[in-house]
Amino acid sequence: SSMEMIKETIKHASGGQDRVALRAAKKSYSYLQLVSSALDITSILRSNVINGSTCLDGARVGIAAKPSPEFVAGVLGTWLCGGVAVPLALSYPEAELLHVMNDSDISMVLSSEEHQGILENVAAQCSAKFSLFPSVTSMSPVTESHEHSQNGRAGMISNLTSEVAKFPTKEGDDPALILYTSGTTGKPKGVVHTHNSIISQVQILTEAWEYSSKDQFLHCLPLHHVHGLFNALLAPLYAGAVVDFMPKFSVRGIWQRWRDSYSKDGYKADDAITLFTGVPTMYTRLLQGYEAMDADQRAASAYAASQLRLMMCGSSALPYPVMKQWEDVTGHRLLERYGMTEFVMAISNPLHGKRKGGTVGKPLPRVEVKTLSDEGVEIKTGEGELCVRSPSLFKEYWKKETVTKESFTDDGFFKTGDTVTVDEDGYFKILGRTNADIMKVGGYKLSALEIEAVLLEHDAILECCVLGLPDKDYGEVVCAIIVPHEDVKKKAEQESKPALTLQELRSWALERLAPYKLPKKLFLRDKLPRNAMGKVNKKEMKKLLEAEAA
Ligand code: ATP
Ligand code: MG
Fold first, then answer.
1. Atom of ligand 1 at shortest distance to CA of 416?
2. How close is the Cα of 185 to the center of ligand 2, in Å?
3. CB 3.0 to 4.6 Å from 240: which of 12, 187, 218, 341, for a disulfide?
4. Contacting residues for 26 by C-beta, under 8 A, at least 6 apart
5. Amino acid 2: pLDDT
């Protein structure tokens, strides 16, 4: 429940020292300050939304801040009051924000100054109240090194505990959070999570990846998706770790932060990073950044990265060449896992034990999975739709009763819409979304993800996206949209020829792919249109390409 999350936060605050919970913009924020700021938020909510009563009773509160202590205090404060937190995607254009805020019927928006302009405007349009976050006080360097007097701190903690106890907090199956899906396959859907589903997930992750108070998490993901919110924020905080926010993903910034943590002479900083997670494209960018370094800096960077405890990857398929190269540079076999807004994480490669490239591992503790054939029959081998049952399952799609019903089997498994296979050791391979990544060519069903992984091994290819375009003879034909490496592109421009031709690609791929899997069409691009989670909307992409071909 939310109370568990808050009690845990107070517990972390009440150790011998006022422990650091968050770092942002070179300042530190303690667990104690988080709880006290959450209480400040409850005052704002009580005076604006519920006229002084203590319970929001499920009212929705929009949280609009980049990853920051304000964001965290906003969520905890909303939960304390029995409200439902709706983290807002700040990258969305105004129309999308309005859609999300109207759809979730938000009563109030808490916003940072940075986003005041746009949010105050949108809030007015959907008659929601608006307030700026009260600022969260950072720890002074003095309190960080010298503890508060033991008595003073004990007093503060017992004060906070009794303040917190005054709230008739919602529990169990009550809604606590609405997250919108990435919108990769359509308009984003509001996914309702409950206090129970949240705390179960947080415990599952803490256990599986052994998060602890010794960990320091370098966080550079948006907070309106499960990856950034659960894996890299809520679970680490539950475990008493430090979360170090880098609100804008920066290749140089990340390598620098790792080099500042560890150096080759054996130095380890007090605030040394131990955990990192990212989407596949981040690792691609980090590798590009690494290649641009001089030899000394490369050595220092590779060493520093090798010293982290764990590096993880997910949100979309990790291409094998990226995984391999990352391992060559840093010694880390990235831990790839599989998740979805609807149940957060369900399948993961192990922390200890074999991490199999090209798979997402096995079901996490307390997660049940099964694979259904097209006919809806459970199968043990071969391709089928993955279905998941877990204590972390969402309650419903917000205001979409029919869609919710259709998404579950009679025995309560959620139908993911992803096609998978299982290998002889029980490791799952994600072949992709049944309706976007699985192409039907002639009599065959092909996985776009599998072909993408192969094409990425080509020297000239930086990024690629494979999809099926309609074809009157075959049903669909395999198309590759390719972003060439910068140097390949420059060289080709000088010689006034294309960076890669379909002919070249096909003859290279002939040794690696069955003939019917070879791309029949090739499009060269400067970049791929990716959303905030680094995913390509293939449906959109198909429409664009079809229009272009017509
Ligand atoms: P929408 O539901 O709005 O179309 P979305 O499904 O992209 O958007 P998310 O819930 O953020 O929204 O993403 C879940 C999907 O991401 C999964 O269904 C799966 O297709 C994909 N995914 C997540 N992790 C992996 C992974 N490790 N490998 C391959 N695909 C993954
Ligand atoms: Mg989805």
1. 18
2. 7
3. 12
4. none
5. 67
